[in-house]
Write a structure and sequence with these properties.
Order of helices and strands: EEEEHHE
Strand order of the largest sheet: 1-2-3-4-5
Distance between the termini: 7 Å
Shape: globular
Number of domains: 1
Number of helices: 2
Number of strands: 5
Radius of gyration: 14 Å
Strand content: 25-35%
Largest sheet: 5 strands, antiparallel
Structural class: alpha+beta
Bound molecules: zinc ion
């Protein structure tokens, strides 16, 4: 599956790496993704899914983050530092930072790299 790239606007944005996080106050599944495009764009995306409601009421959201060069480098470094990206119970420094809860009981997630409002976001539109 590919998505629309926020830089070149072509449907060539791909998810290249994924780190899975623990569920939180609202979301049952949380995945933070490294997204890259052949045009050179590199950013992050967060996929969240809620399955607690009735089966036909499953909700999810998928947002991208236009990370600064510094944030992007830090994000890749954090992914490299984790020995098991698929294990949400992993206790590496990267998982500990992203699985930390804020005062609303939500996962810090990508905010460990990009605090709220520190970079533009974009909708992940599949093509
Ligand atoms: Zn692109
Ligand atoms: Zn880890």
């Amino acid at each position: 599956m590919s998505f629309q790239c926020p830089a070149c606007l072509k449907p060539t944005l791909r998810i290249s790496r994924v780190i899975h996080l623990l569920s939180d106050a609202l979301w049952d599944e949380i995945a933070v993704q490294l997204v890259t495009c052949e045009c050179g764009f590199s950013g992050a995306a967060v996929y969240e899914e809620e399955r607690r409601g009735r089966l036909d009421e499953e909700t999810s959201r998928h947002y991208g983050y236009k990370l600064s060069a510094e944030q992007s480098a830090q994000f890749k470094e954090m992914l490299d530092a984790c020995p098991n990206l698929n294990d949400e119970n992993c206790e590496c420094p990267t998982h500990l930072a992203m699985n930390a809860s804020d005062d609303m009981d939500f996962r810090i997630g990508i905010r460990a790299v990009a605090p709220r409002g520190s970079c533009p976001t974009f909708p992940m539109k599949s093509s």
